[in-house]
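Contributing new records

If you add data, match the layout below exactly. Sequence lines come first and carry their own label; structure lines follow with theirs. Keep one chain per record. Anything else will be rejected by the validation script.
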Amino acid sequence: MAGKVKAICEEKIVPLIEEVGYEVVEVEYVKKSDGMNLTFYIDSENGVQIEDCEKVSRLVDEVIDEINPTDDQPYILSVSSPGIDRPLKTERDFRRNLNKEIKVTLFAKVDGKKEFVGELTAFDDQQFTIKNKDNEITFQKQQVAHIVPVIKF
């Protein structure tokens, strides 16, 4: 059911959100402590403010009721920013973080380590390369559990 709801929302709702100038980073339909939650994570070049979330929520609320992706099952609708430290998942995420410092966490150790930090210097569909003070390392994306930007204040 969750996959169906997500697919319907990606097909019918995401284009509406993108038409008004937002990037939809992820659509999530998951069970949480308060029941099923349908969340649209949005971003824009100027970042996301609470007013942006309200605008998108109002935009999609009626349309979601019309298309009824949950087959009348109750859910909570949320629109949120993915945050500045969101994981890199899409090509856009990698492009946005090119030549910036990222932290890579692997499923299994490589050279005795599971975590690496370095500047993202290259990427494609299958792999990416980081450069740190010691060397340049290329990882297959399938090796990676988590990639996040390094945030410095």
